[in-house]
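#dry-run=false #mode=assembly
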Amino acid sequence: MNEAEFAYRIRQALDEGVERLDYTVSLRLQKARLAAIERGVLRQSAPVWVPALQLASEDESQSVDTQSRVSAWLLRFGLAVPLIALALGIVGIKQWQNDQMVAEVADIDFAVLLDDTPIDTYAHQGYGVYLRNENGM
Amino acid sequence: MATRAELSEFLAGAERRAYKQALFAVRDQDNALDIVQDAMFKLSESYGERPAHELPLLFTRIVQNVIHDFFRRQKVRSTWITLFSALSSADGDESDPLETLEARPGSASAESAADQVEREQVVKIIEQEISRLPARQREAFLLRYWEDLDVAETAVTMKCSEGSVKTHCSRATQALAKALRARGIEL
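#status=ok
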């Protein structure tokens, strides 16, 4: 007996076995089938969500195309704005720090030029603060 | 697109075979029923809109995938159990359990009855011997000769080469014939 003939006889036996399934198994399979079909129907009949801001137009394809272009532009713009703001903020903070440092050094220079303080005060880090406090008072 | 009636009719015709295939693989009635139910849900939810003539092959693939997922979950579970069990020893086996899985002897024989006719006994013995085949051989044999898939379709479903399908089928046939002969059954 060759492989195909042997397989055919096995197949016949398997088909017979399928026909003799227990009632409980058949019932559970039936329930599973009905549940699966019900799920599929529910999924297919689920509402399709449309963006609330979609513009009405007679030519639907054109509307969708236009909307997709606008939304793509808005998306790019929405991503670019925070990045630009962040870059400007970093530059501003750096500039402010530079101004503060220049002002501090200028105060010390001015005090040294007036011979109010020795030259060693350049090396003293807290002297700028002292001068500002003095001027503020 | 398959209508609800077509889908229902198809599943009604395919569910028993799918159950038997799952039962041959996992050898547990409840797990087999869960597998068929999962496969039905997946087909209905994800492929319910496909044409009716595509459903048989899709369902066959889904059933096989769900069976494979079952064994993967079992493998992960057993890995964790091995790691945390002081009684078990970790052997580090990374091989696919489907390649080497052998049946537990006598695991599916509880349903034998003394008053059954000879043909019923033969069918049961055949089912038992099919269940005892190594998983990949059984899968190839059933897909080729029970589900009527050709070699290429079987290879795609099993995610292996056509040559492997032929080898698995040939070995399954030889092993099955030998086992049935040993039990006094000549087909």
